[in-house]
Amino acid sequence: MSVSLQRTVQKNAKYVCLASKNCPVDKRRRNRCQYCRFQKCLSVGMVKEGTKLLTISMETTRCWAERLPGFSELQRDDQSLLIDSAFLELFVLRLAHRIAPGYCSVLVRHVAG
Question: Nuclear receptor domain location, by residue (predicted)?
Fold first, then answer.
């Protein structure tokens, strides 16, 4: 994730383009228009919610895993693997839900039911 995107989301910043909302954003001119830079981040697939989701979800996943029966008896590497795997599955499901909410609801009900 871009540091620029992360700061924009954390500050809840709202930018305005002083030109025609199509400023060049490249290595040399990336700091000229924050609005266009932010829009480019979004257009290449970066997710605004990712900055908060990554931190909150990882801690939530860790708490969930620590309550599983037998988790504490696993080796440290296996614990980390379980936490990382669960986190990634939940993260992918959240992103999929963002793209196709109706489809993901059916999928979650099917898996849970």
Answer: 1-53
